[in-house]
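Q: Please design a sequence for this.
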């Protein structure tokens, strides 16, 4: 009986370790539009200028994009 409890506990801790080692930290982005964005570029689209309707720095960096003002200065990257 004692050995079965040890086996169950061992299995439990093994499961916790395996599941815990696959944990990925998620980033929660606020849902607001950055008002000064004129255009953005993303690594997935090369140098193509994209004109998002509503985006912010948190969402852009999560997608590998940079946001720019009308004068070409970077808002965030």
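A: Design:
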């Amino acid at each position: 009986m004692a050995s079965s409890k040890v086996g169950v506990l061992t299995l439990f801790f093994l499961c916790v370790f395996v599941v815990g080692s696959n944990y990925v930290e998620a980033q929660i982005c606020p849902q607001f539009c950055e008002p000064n964005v004129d255009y953005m570029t993303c690594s997935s689209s090369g140098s193509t200028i994209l004109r998002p309707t509503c985006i912010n720095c948190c969402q852009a960096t999560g997608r590998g994009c940079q946001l720019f003002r009308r004068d070409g200065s970077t808002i965030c990257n």
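Q: Thanks. Anything notable?
A: Residues 15-20 have pLDDT under 50 and may be disordered. Helices lie at 2-21, 57-62.
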